[in-house]
């Protein structure tokens, strides 16, 4: 190790510097802590958070892209959860990705709910008027819109 005061090379574990007499007790632990900190830069994220950030981002894209087909109803919630978890990442890039994933997931979920509700209303009105065929009703029942019609 090197003396913290004069910078000369001294034997590892020395209590005092043989050149300038500086007290070196405790310096070894400090050096080790610095080495550990240097080995894992702040940008390196060793936790599962970076995976969550990526998952949240992907689910966010799927949610928004699929929101017109209600896909966001199923992917939006996990997208939000993973994005929030991904924000714990110490990597700024992954944090930004998670933040984007959160926005996309929320939009995907909201648009899906709006589209689904609107379609539900339209189908209900059409069914009440008797304008929907049996096949159409079966299709809507298949995607989760189940309407009882009195014919
Ligand atoms: Zn010294």
Based on CA atoms alone, the radius of gyration comes out at 30 Å
Q: Assign an overall shape.
A: rod-shaped
Separation of the first and last Cα atoms: 91 Å
| N-to-C SSE string, H for helix and E for strand | HHHHH
- Give the helix proportion (percent range): 55-70%
Number of helices: 5
Label the structural class. mainly alpha
List the helices and strands and how they pair.
Elements: H1 27-39, H2 49-65, H3 71-86, H4 92-129, H5 134-142
Bound molecules: zinc ion.
Descriptive labels:
single chain, 151 residues, 2 domains, binds zinc ion
Structure commentary:
It is a single chain. By secondary structure, the chain is mainly alpha-helical. The protein has two domains: 1-39, no CATH class; 49-142. Helices cover 62% and strands 0% of the residues. It contains five helices and no strands. Helix 2 packs parallel to helix 4 and helix 3 (71-86) runs antiparallel to helix 4 (92-129). The longest helix is centred in the last third of the chain and has 38 residues, at 92-129. It is rod-shaped. The chain starts with 26 loop residues before the first helix and ends in a 9-residue tail after the last helix. The mean pLDDT is 84.
